[in-house]
Amino acid sequence: MTQRLRIATWNINSLRLRLPLLPRLIGALDPDVICLQETKVPDELFPVDAPAELGFPHVAYAGMKGYNGVAILSRIPLQRQTTAPDWCAKGDSRHVSVLLDMKSGPVELHDFYVPAGGDIPDREENPKYGHKLDFVGEATSWFAGRKDLARTVLVGDLNIAPLEHDVWNHKQLLDVVSHTPPETSGLLAWQNTRFHDAVRHFVPEDQKLYTWWSYRNRDWRASNRGRRLDHVWVTPDLKDGLASHTILKDARDWPQTSDHVPVCVELEV
DNA sequence: ATGGTGGGCTCCCCA
């Protein structure tokens, strides 16, 4: 007896501004759970009535003023978890996790917004780059220490394109923050704490695959200088249940949209 | 070619 679990993740780049786009996402993907990043809304200003009106009455969120912020909107009942540390001791609203009440038992779900890391790929010159690498390192250590980790999904804007064909030009981007060797090796080390890349499960590694296109392009589709920054990972016990995936490229043309597009994975659990 | 665009929020940060 399995149950469908369809999880969408989207860097929405301001929840309040783009709330009108969520019905489009729901119409296109019919998700059971929506994980958002860069909500940019403090908890006291979170639009508390909106999720239930969209059919997602169960929520968990962590926000702050102006920057960052994550939220999980769910059709499935959930319990918030408070076991993870305050990453890099910054209290900067980059992670929320829950247990989803599936019929077969709980599924653990983590929603991350990894620091973007600034422009200069050097720890000394650019503390934001160091913060990013430290964040990934802390997350790696924490998940490596979770010896009981099972039935777990990790999603989010991880701000790193780990594979050669996760960027439009591998060689040209090797010194561009998001695709530098310390970042890509760090992200794969995190993934190797037990996770399986649920999107590359469906798309061979030699095929180009992007989830983000800069605002700073006249025609994002024509130039197609994308990067795969948004990810869905699952623990091995969920791998056999992987049913399908969608990268909702159409969303990049929605009115007043985000520079990221939604990524969705369906599982049977 | 070192720009370009966009969101939040305040006289500039961040992506």
Automatic annotation (TrEMBL):
Molecular function (Gene Ontology), one example: DNA binding
GO BP: any one term: DNA repair
Superkingdom assignment: Bacteria
Residue numbers binding Mg(2+): N11, E38, D157, N159, D259, H260
Residue stretches making up the Endonuclease/exonuclease/phosphatase domain: 8-260
Residues at the site labelled Interaction with DNA substrate: H260
Catalytic residues identified in the record: Y113, D157, H260
Protein name in the entry: Exodeoxyribonuclease III
